[in-house]
Design brief:
The complex is a heterodimer of chains A (403) and B (238). Chain A is built from 14 helices and ten strands. By secondary structure, chain A is of the alpha+beta class. Chain A has three domains: 163 residues, no CATH class; 156 residues, no CATH class; 42 residues. In chain A, strands 1, 2, 3, 4, 5, 6, 7, 8, 9 and 10 form a ten-stranded mixed β-sheet that branches. Chain B has a single domain, classed as 3-Layer(aba) Sandwich (Rossmann fold). In chain B, helix 5 runs parallel beside helix 6. The chains are: A alpha+beta (403), B alpha/beta (238).
């Protein structure tokens, strides 16, 4: 006869409430792990999906995912000319926030190297890749934009031609894919008034200099659009991504590029590691500590609940001792009830989490490995938390059955 | 063999609580013998040492001095256990208390069944015997009821069935009729006599109930920790 099962059936309401409570607590622990996995997946998704072998970034910076990296756009052609490089793309990436239909819309803008890259590598759930150099966008579904919808960014509006799923930046913002030219236009969009003021200031600075006084024609040229002036640099890109030709050792190409004094070079894995050891590492530690704290709290609560349940059964335990029940039978009663609460709580946490987590603003990814790990932790804390109840049960004298 | 030796024998059993100025002699030099099939009543006022005697004989509280023999085997020699007490309690002693002390989450048959399972019976065999015992004690029809659904008398009958389950050599009952009306109380006492005679167990019943003393084979009285044999004719004054 299984005493634990009989006791649970007799006190089903109490056990159900306790188990649901523990389940909710375990769901938070589970969710914390899932949030961490989601952040890592979101953060590294772009690096993994974009399919570049090496990343060329501003000298002595850690690349666009760790800090600001500025490179001249023509670096693209320098890198392309290196032997062993099969393909190059510029990487333009920045985040914008706009008011859209009454709420704040944050878009991580990623520039595709048109026409080499039309976004064909992006997993579309609806629509198509880009087919023209301007005014088209592939948007992640988390942005809430629908196919055919137009959104104003800078001076231009962009039509959503494709919808992706789970294309999220490290910060959790949905990615909008446009051409690199459009991405730069959005990033360096300046109002007409600001341009006019800049031109006027440029002219005044020229007039106040000797060269302006000696060569008045320069003042006239200085007041033109900066894009028309050879002395002004073009908008800069964040990085250059390169693919290595088949059969070529990437180390050779990297060694060649590292000989250049204006760039640093990383492999995709290097960029991934930098990302994980940087911003994501702190998030990992933060969430990890929360997870540990919650696990400890769950263990303490379980211990207290089991201790209370044991106290309620003290008379029964004393009676069992009086009629000669071995300790193993009494321990079995307590540990089985503890495992019942823990394992069923874990099941509730999983089932409720499956329904709840998809509604979270950030992705929550439950991996089998994490679930197995948490399952083991639950079993361990279930057994550990029953020790207090067991300790109490072992101290009960059969005499107490007589009182 | 059971019929040739005493079911229970105590020799010079004493129990002293505390020491020095706080020393209390709860039981002193108690020597009693109970035969198989004999029903013994232990009488006496509150605080006279009846429960101390019962718990010492029941291997629950160790005596300070003296010996307890069950079926001729020394199981307690002073405070020293001469055997595995829990195992001995399991197989040789049946307990019935003032309150029935049934396990609240087990139904009547399970309350009887569990002590047999603890003693190594198979589940099916334990259940069959538990049902037979309930039948014998007239509560077979309440087998599936939880204790909370049984009357006081029914609960005591289940408790007696539980006490009998492992064919014990002795049954110890502490005020088993205290919670019952006189009619039910007498029925329970008659039950003890019946099971003692039918099952050959030695039965010791601690009781205040003067109305059913005629049922007992032997009477003992305790006062100030001393035990002495009493006659049925004395019972009115006890």
């Amino acid at each position: 006869m299984n005493l634990a099962a009989k006791d649970i059936r007799h006190n089903i309401g109490r056990f159900a409430l306790t188990t649901v409570g523990i389940g909710m607590l375990l769901m938070v622990v589970m969710g914390m792990g899932g949030i961490y996995r989601g952040i890592v997946a979101d953060a590294t998704m772009l690096i993994d999906e974009i399919g570049a072998d090496i990343w060329v970034v501003q000298k002595d910076t850690r690349g666009p995912f760790a800090e600001i990296s500025r490179l001249p756009a023509n670096l693209l052609y320098r890198v392309e000319s290196v032997r062993g490089v099969e393909d190059v793309r510029e990487f333009v990436f920045h985040t914008v926030q706009r008011d859209y239909e009454g709420s704040a819309l944050r878009i991580a803008i990623l520039g595709l190297s048109w026409p080499r890259d039309t976004g064909a590598w992006v997993s579309l759930i609806e629509g198509r890749p880009l087919v023209q150099n301007h005014y088209e966008m592939i948007a992640d579904e988390s942005l809430g934009l629908s196919l055919g919808e137009k959104i104003q960014l800078g001076k231009e509006s962009y039509e959503v031609v494709g919808i992706t799923k789970s294309m999220i930046s490290a910060a959790g913002d949905g990615i909008g894919f446009v051409t690199a030219a459009d991405a730069l236009a959005i990033q360096f969009n300046t109002s007409g008034e600001a341009l006019r003021l800049e031109r006027a200031a440029r002219k005044v600075r020229g007039e106040n200099s000797d060269i302006g006084a000696n060569m008045p024609i320069l003042l006239e040229q200085a007041s033109r659009a900066s894009a028309e002036l050879p002395a002004f640099s073009r908008p800069q890109i964040s990085a250059v991504m390169a693919s290595i030709s088949p059969g070529v050792d990437p180390a050779q190409v990297i060694a060649k590029l590292e000989g250049w004094s204006d760039v640093s070079v990383y492999t995709s894995q290097g960029q991934r590691d930098l990302l994980l050891k940087g911003t994501v590492e702190k998030v990992r530690l933060q969430i990890g500590l929360f997870r540990v704290l919650l696990t400890i709290i769950a263990a303490i609560i379980m211990a207290l609940i089991l201790y209370t349940l044991t106290l309620d059964k003290i008379h029964t335990i004393a009676l069992l001792k009086l009629v000669g029940a071995p300790n193993s039978r009494i321990l079995g009663l307590i540990i089985q009830e503890s495992l019942f609460i823990g394992v069923l709580g874990f099941g509730i946490a999983y089932l409720v989490g499956q329904r709840l987590f998809p509604n979270f603003p950030r992705r929550v990814i439950l991996t089998n490995e994490d679930l197995l790990q948490l399952g083991m932790i639950v079993i361990v804390i279930s057994i550990a938390s029953s020790f207090l109840g067991i300790w109490k049960a072992m101290r009960v004298s059969p005499n107490e059955a007589l009182s | 063999m059971k019929n040739e030796t005493l079911a229970i024998a105590t020799e010079g059993l004493s129990k002293i609580y505390g020491s020095g100025n706080t020393e209390v002699i709860a039981m002193q030099d108690a020597s009693v013998g109970v035969k198989h099939g004999e029903v013994v009543a232990l009488l006496g006022p509150s605080g006279s040492g009846k429960s101390t005697f019962l718990t010492a004989v029941g291997l629950i509280n160790a005596p300070t001095a003296g010996r307890v023999l069950i079926n001729g085997e020394v199981v307690m020699d002073g405070p020293r256990a001469m055997t595995n007490l829990r195992k001995f309690r399991r197989s040789e002693i049946g307990y019935v208390f003032q309150k029935s002390n049934l396990i609240p989450f087990l139904n009547a048959v399970e309350n009887v069944q569990i002590v047999m399972e603890i003693n190594g019976y198979g589940v099916a065999e334990a259940r069959r015997r538990a049902l037979d015992l309930l039948e014998e004690l007239g509560v077979r029809d309440r087998a599936d009821n939880l204790p909370s659904m049984l009357s006081g008398g029914q609960q005591q009958r289940v408790a007696v069935a539980r006490a009998l389950a492992n064919h014990p050599s002795i049954i110890l009952a502490d005020e088993p009729t205290a919670a019952l009306d006189s009619q039910r109380g007498r029925q329970v006492m008659e039950l003890f006599a019946q099971v003692a005679h039918d099952h050959g167990a030695g039965v010791i019943v601690v009781t205040h109930d003067q109305r059913a003393l005629d049922i007992f084979d032997t009477l003992y009285e305790m006062e100030d920790g001393l035990i002495r044999r009493a006659e049925h004719s004395e019972s009115a004054t006890l």
